[in-house]
Amino acid sequence: MAINKLIKIKIVISRHLSPERIFILSFAIYILLGALLLRLPIAGAKSPLNFVDALFTSCSAVCVTGLAVLDIGKDLSFVGQLITIFLFQIGGLGIITFSTVFFHLMGLGISFKQREIIQSTFLHTPRIDLIRIVRFVIWYTLFFESLGTLLLWIRFSQNFSTGQAFFQALYHAVSAYNNCGYSLFSDSFEGYQGDLIVNLTIMGLIILGGIGFIVQQEVYSRLVGRVKKLSVHTKIVIITTVILILLGALLFYVFEKHLNIMGLPLETQILISFFQSVTARTCGFSTVNIGLLANETIIILMILMFVGASPGSTGGGIKTTSMAVLSLMIWNRLKGNIEVNVFKRTMPKEVITRTVSIIFASAFSIALIGAVLLVTGERNLVPLESRHFFVEYLFETISAFGTVGLSMGITPKMNDVQKLSIILMMFAGRVGPLTLAFSLSRLALRRSLTYAEEGILVG
Fold first, then answer.
1. What is the helix (H) or strand (E) element at residue 346, kind and residue range?
2. Where do the domains of the chain lie?
3. What tens digit of pLDDT does each residue of 24-68 get?
4. Residue 162: half-sphere exposure toward Cβ, Cα within 13 Å
5. Cβ count within 10 A of residue 282
6. For 344-370, what is each residue's pLDDT tens digit?
7. Residues 6 or more apart in contact with residue 414 via CB below 8 angstroms
8. What is the CATH number of domain 1-123?
9. What is the pLDDT of residues 142-192, one digit of tens each?
10. What is the 8-class DSSP label of residue 262?
């Protein structure tokens, strides 16, 4: 009887909902469920959370953002902290991923729309071995999170009891791999800014979770000799990721070596620079006080947050591939090439158009939500104070869009309207502005018309 009911539910969903709407609805329902669980008296350490704070915390966890209006380690009980682990674990990999595994174990098969969602989530080219891909995602996630937990447990055991050290290690390993950034430490990892094991473990988990699961599989297959060469997608992701990490770390060091990291040992300065470069693109951990950083450093962090992680990963942003395609498009135009060529391959025009649309939609969303935060903020500020808040609100908005979680300290001070605006930004950043737009449009799949061409002046 239970199996028959599940089959009927799948049929109803397939008939009435598009893949985009299924994808978005699954996240929305999961966020609401998480908020209701966090509202329970046993979830709060001192008192139950109000609904807006519970919704904000749930959305930030499910969308693997890491922005927090409360202190996770102090304001949530052990039960509340366990709830957040499940929220950002399932939210990071995707509800559809887990439902696919569940339906497969029940012998119900995978619907066409489930296949389409999995294809668009994890793969750059169509494949038929989707169950194998999903299994790969689950097993590699468990492996890397277990390895990260073990390494952090060994280190934390020097400061905490065995049980407490294990939970601290598990929480931060899962949070890092899913690029969430939720921490049980009030100052994130500022207390471990010179610790080699903690820094390398957290950075490794963030990078692995942020490059995308299909990239992980291709690199593994290349190392064991199953494939002879990597795809263009994987090459672009790896090269762009390395460039952003190195460039971000270099600029952070140059801008902060005489300010916030001055006086620290050189190895600690290097660790901080690399840590903030890595975490700024995909995660929300920090080893320095973000609110004290120089203006030029803040700009670099905002650029890194806007770019974000890679497609098919647990992170947000416009993605590394979009940044790479835009750069390649400009470079090819400067060389006089009409097409966008890379690695002796030509990018499809659909990819170019989608890239430009994603970047424009993302920038517009950030500008809109940033304006809402300013309008709904304090009204009795003098111009200089409002400009100070402008930087903090813009940083917060980009951090929410990129599902990063870094903050200059303004998050707990926001009013309910501002919190709801950031919730919307985190949600859009996780599911993607275009996916959200397509889900709201009934004409998204209508065949477009082509008319006679006529040029206009641009630039």
1. strand 345-346
2. 1-123, 356-401+410-440
3. 787 888 899 999 999 999 998 788 889 999 999 999 999 888 899
4. 0
5. 35
6. 888 888 888 888 888 888 899 899 999
7. 69, 373, 422
8. 1.10.287
9. 899 999 999 999 999 998 999 999 999 999 999 999 888 899 998 899 989
10. T
